[in-house]
Amino acid sequence: MKQISLWGLIVVPFALLATLGGVTVYLFSTVTISNVSDNVGLHYLKETESRVYDHVTDFMAPLNVLAELNRDAIAHHPEWLEDLDTIGGRLYEQAVPYPYMTFISLATADGRYINSTRDPFGSRGDHHLANNYTVEPRSLEGFEYDPIQYIGPRIASEPSYPNYDPRTRPFYQDAVKQQGMTWSSISPYFGYQSLGVGLSTPIYDEQGTLLGVTATSVALVALDKYLQSIELVDGSYIFLAERNGDLIATSSDEALFSETDRVSLGSHSNSVLKRAGEALIEGSHQLNVNGERFLYHLRPIELPYGQVWYLGVLIPESYYRNMLTEYSTALFFIVLVIFISIALAGSLIARFIGKPILQLNDAVKSNSLERIRAIPQPLSHVYEINSLGRGLQGMTYKLSDIMQNLEQKVAQRTSHLKNENEELLEQSTTDELTGLYNRRGFNLLFEQAFELAKQQNKSICTVLCDIDHFKRVNDTLGHVEGDKALIAVAAVLKQHFRPNDIVARYGGEEFMLIMVDMGKDDAVSRLHKVRQTLIKQPTHKDFPITLSFGVTCTDGSTHLTLEELVNDVDAKLYQAKNTGRDKIVD
């Protein structure tokens, strides 16, 4: 095999890399600039789209949450319908956190009606109650909110509506007809420059008797304001539209509806939005509008109960192509200079390290320990080469000792590694703060327990619990007190369950418990004792700790998969957190 010098080995490749690097960067910037720029544009587009998507889903979430909450509460407590004033206070208080929640209402099967109402622009001063039974039957009047009696003085400036029967209204009739959650059509509010949408649901008692209908409605002007507030690159657009193309909100300041009709993408005066309306196909597209190319992405927003909106984002191709062309030209010259500098540096490095390496080579080839011991020190200013020389010299003295003690050291090292592996395994499955199993340890034991319960036809109970308002503990008292709370909760959970039960810190402030061969009543009883212990022995006098629990128990005859079991208990914890916290949902 032909041999080459160290100088050639370092300098020639560096010179080739300098040449090839410059050519490669040039070709890359010239040939692939289109693909790179498209990716940059798509990244900007999707990042903007993701922010809007999250905002819209968060904005619309209270509609179904409040409708479901009121439906379930009254279905389980039909006696509340005897006191609609108290229900009115409940509706008013539910609307307070949501400034654009225009209506939260309840219509009974006997024709009574009460609602929390405010103008579509979220004015606090216009938030009040209305009902059709206080002044005289079927006369809908507006009333101030009274925090004690709920129904305060009548508002003289509010119009009254005699003979108002909610059972004749579309929100009531549509919900009863569908026998479930029903979306209203998006339409302008009378007298206001805003679109609105509502969600209504019938309420049935345990015997299936219709008790009434509850509904929520939100003003969509907030979404229009939000899209217009987003800082976009010049010539970009964002829109929300229904599946038929009718606009809900846009980043432009043009009207969304006239006195009689909604504005649709397909008939929009803006040529870019009009062209987008002709391509309502989910995914990424390129549109050509009057000679200008746009990158266009359409994504569906799937709201609960079958409502689907489209979110569209369009950015001009010129924005990201011009920007990246400038970057690629500058990058080419920078990389070219770097590679030339590297080639020159390689020549100097080869000369600097070559001479001492040749000295070492001659000493090793001599096959003489004395010649190796005679290597001058320091051999080189390069630390590694000098260390290599000293190492060779030291090797001549230690070689015989190494051979004699090799077997003993191998045995000692093997034993040490075994102990370290066992310790690492324990550490990898244990939560350092609480001493409980961590997520990894829990997964290993959970699968074993689940399979054992199936094989032996035994029941298995799964509990997922979460410390309520734990972020407040960290923010108010500090992370040290937060850690103390986690340790205390872990100790209480271990105290009230059997030694063979699995108790793990599932993540953050969440804990997971698995009990094989334990009934639901026993599990729930132990959880109540956990709650009582935390009340009697608070971790901090100014901030009591409470837990929310989700519990799922199956007997030997119930066949759930591991994933279904975890999803079910997670859903119950979510229900506990969203219905007041500090409770057990089983």
From TrEMBL:
GO molecular function, one example? diguanylate cyclase activity
Domain (GGDEF) ranges: 458-586
SMART domains, sorted: GGDEF
- Which locations, inside or outside the cell, does it occupy? Cell membrane
GO CC terms of this entry:
plasma membrane
The cofactors required by this protein are: Mg(2+)
Mention any Pfam family matching this sequence.
Answer: GGDEF
The UniProt entry, under SUPFAM superfamilies, shows: Nucleotide cyclase
Where does the UniProt entry say this protein principally localizes?
Answer: membrane
Reaction(s) the record says it catalyses? 2 GTP = 3',3'-c-di-GMP + 2 diphosphate
Q: What is its EC number?
A: 2.7.7.65
What transmembrane ranges does the database entry give? 6-28, 330-353
Superkingdom field = Bacteria
Q: What is the protein's membrane topology class?
A: Multi-pass membrane protein
EC supergroup of this enzyme: transferase
Which of UniProt's keywords are assigned here? Answer: Cell membrane, Membrane, Transmembrane, Transmembrane helix
User: NCBIfam families, per this entry?
Assistant: GGDEF (TIGR00254)
Q: What is this protein called?
A: diguanylate cyclase
What is the species of this protein?
Answer: Marinomonas gallaica
